[in-house]
Design the sequence.
C-alpha cells in the first residue's frame, strides 16, 4: 500500500538564515512551516538531494511551492548508489549515477496576486534510495526582491521494498512434504467418490423395497389425499383436465405392484399441479401485528384484501389497489364518506412514499381525485387542512429526488391541485412550502430549487396576497435565504421568482438593501438592481405606448364625430352612436395636443438613446461608446474614447503622451518620435488636401463623414476584428 516515505536532506546548494533544508523533513505543510529557501542572490540552478530511509518504489512526488519565491522549473532525478555508506555522504553522492525522470513547470502565481501556494503532483514509477531536485531560476515579481527560490514541502509517496534475503517465504522446496500432501489429496478424493456411490445404491434399494412402501404409506397418503381433493376441484372447474388414470407400468417384464404405481401416479399428478396457474389473491401476504394496527381503518372500510395489496411487495398489487380506488372515486353515483376519506388518506400516506414510479404517479392521480371530491363540509375545515397538509408535505419533500421525471410529475400535480376550490378555502399550500424550507437548515439544493420553481408557478397562476396564494412576507422569507445560496442554479431560480413577484408587488423592493455604491459592490445585488431598472423602463415604455394608442383612438373618434357634426344632413350614425354627446372643438384640440405632446416625448426618448456618431440606438450609450460604436475607439495610451478619424490629431494635441508624437508632413499621420526618421524614409507619396491616412489600417481615406463611415464599417479589417472581439 502506498504511504508517505520519510527521508533526510543530505545536500543543498545554499540556504537562507532560518530557512534550512532540514525543515523539509517534517513533511507538515501548514501555515507554520517555513520550508527551504535559497540564499540571497544565489547562483542557479540550485540542488537538493533527499535520501530515503529505505530503498523504495516511488509512485508520486508532491512539491509545494512558495507563494512569491517561485522557481520556473524543477527537474527530478533518482538514483541508487552501488556502495551504500551513510557515513560518507559526499563519496556516495559523487559515485551515484542519477537518472532523470522529468521536470515540473511552476506557475508564476500572478492570477492569485501572489496569495496562494501551488501544489504540483507528479506520477512516476522508479526504485531508488536518493531523489535529487534541480531548481532553476525564479519568476521575477515585486515581492521577490532578493532573487530567491523557496520550497515549502516535499512528499515522496510509494512503497518500501523489503529485502528478499530476510523474507522467510523464500525457502528451498521440500519435495518429500509436497509428495505427502499430494498422496493425501488423492486419498480424500477417492474416499469421497466411494461414499457417493454407496449413498446412491442405498437410496435405490430403499425406494424399491415393498416393506418401505407399506411402512411409509401412512406418512405419504395424507398428502396424496390432499392432492386428490385438489384434483377434484380442478376437474370441476370450467377448464376440465384429462383423466390421469394410467395403465399398469411394466418394468423388466414384470408388473409393478399397485402401491408403487399409485405412488407414481400421485407424484405425476403433484408435478402437474405445480404447473397450473394459481389465483393472484391467494399469493397476497399475511399482515403482521404492526401492519394490522396501521391498516385497521382500511380493513374496516375496504376489507382485508385491500390492506394486503397495500402491504404487498409486488408493485402490481399496489397498482391494482390504487386503480380500483380511482375508479370508485371517479364514479358519478359515488360520494366519499368520512370513514372512506380517512381510509383513503391512510392508503395515500403509504402509496405516495412508494419507490416505483408507476405506482407513485397513479398515487398522484388518486390524490388529485381525492382532494377534488373530499367531503370538507363533513370533515370540517380543521380536519381537511390536516389531511391536505399531511399528504402534500410527503410529495413536496420528494421534489429533492434525483429522478427528474418524478420531480416534474410532482410540480405539475401541485400546480394543478393549487387551483382546487378546497385548497383555496383552507390555503395550506403556501404554509407547507414555507415550513419545509425553514424547517431544515442544510436543505439540499435540488429540493430548494424545486420549491422555488413551484412557488414561481403558483405566483403566476394565483398572484400575490390573494386567497389561497402566497403573501409578500412568505415569498421574501424564502427568497432572502435562497438569493445568497452557494449553488448557482438556486440563485438563478430565486432571481426568476423574485422578478415574477415584482410584477405584482412593487413594494417587494423594500426587502432589498438600498441601491447605493456599497450595495452594488456585491455582484448579486448589482445584477438585481440593473434588472429592476430595465424592468421599470420596459414597463414605462409599455404604459406610454398604450396611452398613446388609447389617445390616438380617442382622437380618431373625436375627428369622426366632428365631421359628423359638420355634415349632419349627409351622415347617418349607427344605433350604438346615437347617445354620443357632441364635443366642442376645444376638447378635440386638447386631445389632439396631448397626442402630439406624447408622440414628441416618445421621439425625444428615442433620440436620447441614439448614438450621434454611428446612428445606432442603445439603452446604455456609455457601454456603446466604449465597445460597440465603430466610429469610436479608446486611445491605447490614455484610454480616452476618441473618434477614429481624429485619432492623429488627438495623439499630437490632447493625449497624455503627446510630447512623444510628431505629425508627418506628407501623410499627416502621427508617429512616435523614435520611429519618425524611419517613417520619413518609407513615406514617399504626398497626399492631397482632402485625403487622410487611417490610423488603424494605414489606408488612404477621403476626409468626409460618408467615406469614414463606409471605411470603418466595412473596409477596415482591424476595426471589424476589434468589434467582433468586443461582442
Sequence:
Amino acid at each position: 500500500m502506498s504511504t508517505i516515505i520519510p527521508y533526510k536532506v543530505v545536500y543543498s546548494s545554499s540556504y537562507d538564515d532560518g530557512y534550512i533544508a532540514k525543515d523539509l523533513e517534517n513533511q507538515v505543510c501548514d501555515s507554520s512551516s517555513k520550508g527551504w529557501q535559497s540564499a540571497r542572490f544565489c547562483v542557479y540552478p540550485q540542488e537538493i538531494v533527499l535520501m530515503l530511509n529505505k530503498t523504495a518504489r516511488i509512485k508520486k512526488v508532491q512539491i509545494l511551492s512558495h507563494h512569491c519565491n517561485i522557481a520556473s522549473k524543477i527537474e527530478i532525478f533518482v538514483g541508487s548508489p552501488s556502495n551504500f555508506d551513510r557515513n560518507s555522504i559526499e563519496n556516495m553522492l559523487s559515485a551515484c549515477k542519477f537518472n532523470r525522470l522529468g521536470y515540473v513547470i511552476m506557475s508564476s502565481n500572478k492570477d492569485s496576486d501572489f496569495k496562494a501556494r501551488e501544489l504540483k503532483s507528479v506520477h512516476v514509477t522508479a526504485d531508488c534510495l536518493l531523489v535529487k531536485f534541480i531548481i532553476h531560476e525564479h519568476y521575477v515579481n515585486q515581492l521577490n526582491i532578493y532573487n530567491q527560490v523557496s520550497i515549502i514541502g516535499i512528499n515522496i509517496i510509494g512503497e518500501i521494498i523489503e529485502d528478499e534475503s530476510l523474507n522467510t517465504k523464500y525457502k528451498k522446496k521440500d519435495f518429500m512434504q509436497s509428495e505427502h500432501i499430494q498422496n493425501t489429496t488423492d486419498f480424500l478424493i477417492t474416499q469421497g467418490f466411494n461414499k457417493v456411490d454407496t449413498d446412491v445404491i442405498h437410496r435405490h434399494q430403499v425406494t424399491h423395497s415393498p416393506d418401505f412402501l407399506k411402512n411409509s404409506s401412512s406418512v405419504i397418503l395424507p398428502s396424496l389425499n390432499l392432492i386428490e381433493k385438489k384434483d377434484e376441484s380442478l376437474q370441476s372447474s370450467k377448464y376440465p383436465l384429462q383423466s390421469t388414470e394410467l395403465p399398469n407400468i411394466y418394468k423388466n417384464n414384470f408388473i409393478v405392484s399397485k402401491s408403487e404405481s399409485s405412488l407414481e401416479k400421485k407424484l405425476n399428478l403433484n408435478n402437474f399441479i405445480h404447473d397450473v396457474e394459481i389465483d393472484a389473491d391467494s399469493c397476497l401476504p399475511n399482515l403482521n401485528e404492526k401492519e394490522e394496527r396501521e391498516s385497521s381503518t382500511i380493513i374496516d372500510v375496504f376489507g382485508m384484501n385491500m390492506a394486503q395489496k397495500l402491504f404487498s411487495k409486488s408493485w402490481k398489487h399496489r397498482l391494482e389497489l390504487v386503480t380500483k380506488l380511482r375508479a370508485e372515486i371517479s364514479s358519478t353515483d359515488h360520494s366519499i364518506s368520512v370513514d372512506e376519506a380517512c381510509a383513503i388518506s391512510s392508503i395515500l400516506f403509504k402509496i405516495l412514499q412508494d419507490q416505483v414510479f408507476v405506482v407513485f404517479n397513479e398515487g398522484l392521480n388518486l390524490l388529485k381525485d381525492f382532494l377534488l371530491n373530499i367531503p370538507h363540509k363533513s370533515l370540517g375545515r380543521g380536519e381537511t387542512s390536516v389531511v391536505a397538509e399531511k399528504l402534500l408535505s410527503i410529495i413536496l419533500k420528494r421534489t429533492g429526488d434525483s429522478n427528474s421525471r418524478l420531480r416534474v410529475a410532482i410540480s405539475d400535480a401541485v400546480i394543478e391541485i393549487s387551483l382546487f376550490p378546497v385548497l383555496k378555502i383552507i390555503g395550506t399550500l403556501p404554509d407547507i412550502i414555507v415550513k419545509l424550507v425553514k424547517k431544515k437548515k442544510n436543505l439540499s439544493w435540488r429540493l430548494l430549487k424545486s420549491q422555488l420553481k413551484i412557488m414561481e408557478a403558483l405566483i403566476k397562476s394565483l398572484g400575490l396576497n390573494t386567497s389561497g396564494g402566497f403573501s409578500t412576507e412568505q415569498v421574501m422569507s424564502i427568497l432572502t435565504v435562497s438569493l445568497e445560496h452557494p449553488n448557482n442554479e438556486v440563485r438563478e431560480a430565486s432571481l426568476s421568482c423574485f422578478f415574477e413577484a415584482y410584477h405584482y408587488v412593487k413594494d417587494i423592493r423594500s426587502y432589498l438593501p438600498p441601491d447605493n455604491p456599497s450595495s452594488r459592490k456585491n455582484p448579486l445585488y448589482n445584477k438585481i438592481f440593473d434588472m429592476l431598472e430595465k424592468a421599470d423602463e420596459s414597463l414605462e415604455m409599455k404604459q406610454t405606448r398604450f396611452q398613446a394608442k388609447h389617445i390616438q383612438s380617442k382622437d380618431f373618434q373625436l375627428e369622426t364625430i366632428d365631421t359628423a357634426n359638420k355634415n349632419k344632413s349627409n351622415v347617418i350614425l349607427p344605433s350604438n352612436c346615437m347617445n354620443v354627446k357632441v364635443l366642442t372643438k376645444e376638447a378635440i384640440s386638447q386631445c389632439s395636443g396631448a397626442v402630439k405632446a406624447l408622440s414628441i416625448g416618445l421621439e425625444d426618448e428615442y433620440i436620447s438613446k441614439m448614438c450621434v456618431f454611428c446612428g445606432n440606438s442603445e439603452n446604455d450609450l456609455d457601454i456603446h461608446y466604449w465597445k460597440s460604436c465603430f466610429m469610436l475607439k479608446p486611445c491605447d495610451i490614455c484610454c480616452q474614447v476618441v473618434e477614429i478619424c481624429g485619432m492623429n490629431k488627438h495623439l499630437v494635441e490632447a493625449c497624455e503622451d503627446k510630447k512623444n508624437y510628431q505629425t508627418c508632413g506628407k501623410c499627416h499621420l502621427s508617429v512616435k518620435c523614435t520611429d519618425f526618421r524611419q517613417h520619413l524614409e518609407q513615406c514617399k507619396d504626398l497626399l492631397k488636401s482632402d485625403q487622410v491616412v487611417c490610423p488603424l489600417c494605414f489606408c488612404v481615406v477621403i476626409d468626409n463623414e460618408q467615406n469614414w463611415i463606409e471605411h470603418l464599417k466595412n473596409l477596415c479589417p482591424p476595426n471589424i476584428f476589434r468589434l467582433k472581439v468586443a461582442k
In short: The chain has a mean pLDDT of 76. The radius of gyration is 46 Å. The chain is about 50% helix and 15% strand.
